[in-house]
């Protein structure tokens, strides 16, 4: 065990998430029962600690990535909104996702034949498997998985240049926030790379690192950036207590302008619904419905 006051984000036994850039004037804190791991990897600062309510908490560069208590709300929505908006996904690409939660959710789709996962930091995978095993829940051993340890942006550039024949049906960008190694994922060039790697009826989804309470104009601009590449682009959100203001926005796009992203394109089997704690067809659609003031900025 590590001394629980030896990390810059921890003071008097409390972890404090503070970002004057992303959420000025506010902070989110969690009591630290014990620090399980902390170190600077080749790419980012990694902190893992335990909290009596939220269980084990993964923090990268001072920003909470997931906690055992509420991670499912994020993993299920970023995965299944895209997967059920597609009529029959066979080849899925996950960019980022080192904790394994999205991989766990994609693996629940038995019709999927190939899962490619591109994670830049092998240490996040190693530590998540050790300290947060329920996140991946064995999915890293799924025989459909092709795991690549490299930069997701460069991976997409390389397959674009190589003229890869096989494209993807669903691409999920489960990255950390724009500060740090994930910065390039929030720019137009990235949406173009996604477009080039996607099949005609393909769906892409990404975490927007913001929500309607934090920076509405940023979300409007990010959605408009996506729309310049994917005319069929929508914004939805999921509710996660340990993400700033308790929710996180998702940007969803399709190459096919006629696909109604706001509704699942296939129904869930009883078995599929039994495996899910947050996602269901009703919450899929309702997650695109915004309060009036936010709807006017983001959707008009
Ligand atoms: N649920 C979290 C969120 O919404 O912020 C994301 C969790 S996941 C741990 C984020 C992952 O993105 C990390 O494992 C990080 O290493 C990875 N990542 C960041 N930049 C990357 C890049 N350029 N290429 C591939 N993976 C990247």
UniProtKB/TrEMBL annotation:
InterPro entries associated with the record: PABS, PABS_CS, SAM-dependent_MTases_sf, Spermi_synthase, Spermi_synthase_euk, Spermidine_synt_N, Spermidine_synt_N_sf
Keyword annotations of the record: Polyamine biosynthesis, Transferase
Signal peptide: none
Annotated ranges, domain PABS: 12-255
Active site per database record: 174
SUPFAM superfamilies cross-referenced by the UniProt entry: S-adenosyl-L-methionine-dependent methyltransferases
Similarity field: Belongs to the spermidine/spermine synthase family.
Name the record gives this protein: PABS domain-containing protein
Organism: Saccharomyces eubayanus (Yeast)
